[in-house]
Amino acid sequence: METRIFGKTGAKITFITMGGCGLGYIDQSEANKAVKLAMDHGINMIDVAPTYGNAEIRLNPWIEKYRNKFFLSEKTLKRKKNGAWRQLNKSLEKLGTSYFDLYQFHAVSSMEELDQILGE
């Protein structure tokens, strides 16, 4: 699987990544098959979000066991700094990890929203 360096981080991530939305709407057995297939093909980046049903819970066993093999991306729709932090911590707990490699503010549509998110 082709990889690329992610910005200035030095992290090598696969050109093809796995979007985790579908994991949230299938049972654990099917989620296991999907994640294993992605890993078997060398995919090392997975993107999830709290709005993806049970995706974080479905991915948890894989992150707990293989965290060092994944570049884990998460996003939030929260528009207040405190809400985003609360959601980030809740997602970390659901996934069974202490960090995300990338945390995104999803669907920001104005500078006012960005100011609100990053504000005090």
UniProtKB/TrEMBL annotation:
Tell me which stretches of the chain form a coiled coil: none
Q: Which residues form the NADP-dependent oxidoreductase domain?
A: 16-110
InterPro entries recorded:
AKR2_Oxidoreductase, NAD(P)_OxRdtase_dom_sf, NADP_OxRdtase_dom
Pfam families assigned to the protein according to its UniProt record, in alphabetical order: Aldo_ket_red
Known Gene3D superfamilies for this protein? NADP-dependent oxidoreductase domain (3.20.20.100)
- Protein name (Swiss-Prot/TrEMBL): NADP-dependent oxidoreductase domain-containing protein
What species is this protein from? marine sediment metagenome
